[in-house]
Amino acid sequence: MTLEKPGFIDPVAEAQACFRLVLRTMSSPGQIVTLANPVAAPPLTPATAAVLLTLVDAEVSLWLDEPLADSWDWLAFHAGVVRATDIGSAAFLCTTRLPPLAEVFAGTDAAPETGATIILQVPSLEGGKKLTLYGPGLETPIVIAPQGLPADFVAQWEQNHRIFPRGIDLLLCAGSSFCALPRSVRIGEG
Amino acid sequence: MNGYNFAYLDEPTKRMIRRAILKAVAIPGHQVPFGAREMPLPYGWGTGGIQVTAAILGADDVLKVIDQGADDTTNAVSIRRFFSRVAGVETTTRTRDASVIQTRHRIPETPLRDDQILVYQVPLPEPLAKLEPSRAETKQMHALADYGLMHVKLYEDIARFGHVTISYDYPVMVNDRYLMSPSPIPAFDTLKMNRMPALQLFGAGREKRIYAVPPYTTVRPLDFDDHPFALIRAPHACTLCGATNSYLDEVVTDDRGGRMFICSDTDYCADRRGDAASEGDAA
């Protein structure tokens, strides 16, 4: 185990600052926010690393996909996170490719808050196919164009929104920036 | 302050509360259970609101705390001093200068912006509690969006009294899905919640629930087409500032029936009078 990669330098202040950014983009879906103090922990991008340190610890389970598996030691050391063995049982998923949303736990009608959060590491939050977002948090619909989403993403999200209040919340991370797609948002193409 | 983490709560507790807040924002109006901690003040004095504020507060935030609209009452002063001591944050009594506003039972008269967060202290988060005492039952009702019981209560009010008799904590529908308690704010304030630009967070410490209304979200008071929701306001102008659009407190001034009506929102009233009294206690 090598521990040359640090976590937050000032854990209290940096976790708070990162949380407020997550809160801002969760409350205003699609709004792109950027970290002031990036955390360097490849193969995680700075945004992914900071969001994980802010939200996960020994009380929640995390699932990592294969390209990010090198980060287990770093996460175990800095966050003490519980390793989920399969996609369907994880509270948080951190991945470079979106798993089929139907395979991820979406909570129950009585306890929809148990639905998972997916942290998806994408190449860029710009230059991809245009998506229009509508819903709570948005004064008027906004357009985002992240890269790295599956071709049938809009159809999958339609299904994710249809089961509301059950559902999965998504954070898209690229470089030091990220934006959120909470389950309450509706997404149209173009 | 020595011996305490920034903003009093330890980091694992803040993380737990933060996770609950994010899920609450993603499911507007749904009550998310959380592991409320014991706080250094009794239940009923804002332990839920304080925990939410502690979890979101940063060193560069400017905090305002109001109790029934006033910045200078015991609850407001003690909570403001608490965060001033344990987080060292700047405090204010001016609504427009604050980035986080913790409130007990009022929404400020000054319209809020999208860079502000309003944190409500909530005694009873379950809007159906007075109609159905079982938590298991009300949970099921929320799961099924079955709010017939509340409609019956409103109907019975109208049948017996000619109008709905709820003057505070008026039940609202959030995002056309969840029935929500707006906390015991006067019915007068209810319409301010609809499509408010600021994020609204609700913390109930004893009941261990957090819920939220994201910015620009539909919040509709429950009513009937033929008996629409009607604002209730004392038919007076504020004795101090002359406002005719603010929520008023009735103040008894002597034992011979003397009384006056003044704005419940002290900052709004002082601002309209153009004096510096709204500085108040900024300890």
UniProtKB/TrEMBL annotation, chain A:
InterPro entries for the chain: PhnH-like_sp (IPR038058), Phosphonate_metab_PhnH (IPR008772)
GO process terms (BP): organic phosphonate metabolic process
Signal sequence segment: none
Molecular-function annotations in GO: lyase activity
Keywords: Lyase
ATP-binding as UniProt keyword: no
Full protein name: Phosphonate C-P lyase system protein PhnH
Source organism (scientific name): Acidisoma cellulosilyticum
Automatic annotation (TrEMBL), chain B:
InterPro entries listed in its UniProt record: PhnJ
Keywords tagged on the record: 4Fe-4S, Iron, Iron-sulfur, Lyase, Metal-binding, S-adenosyl-L-methionine
Keyword Lyase: yes
EC number: 4.7.1.1
Catalytic activity: alpha-D-ribose 1-methylphosphonate 5-phosphate + AH2 + S-adenosyl-L-methionine = alpha-D-ribose 1,2-cyclic phosphate 5-phosphate + methane + 5'-deoxyadenosine + L-methionine + A + H(+)
UniProt enzyme class: lyase
One biological process term in Gene Ontology: organic phosphonate catabolic process
GO function terms (MF aspect): 4 iron, 4 sulfur cluster binding; alpha-D-ribose 1-methylphosphonate 5-phosphate C-P-lyase activity; metal ion binding
Known function: Catalyzes the breakage of the C-P bond in alpha-D-ribose 1-methylphosphonate 5-phosphate (PRPn) forming alpha-D-ribose.
Similarity-based family: Belongs to the PhnJ family.
Protein name as it appears in the record: Alpha-D-ribose 1-methylphosphonate 5-phosphate C-P lyase
Provenance organism: Acidisoma cellulosilyticum
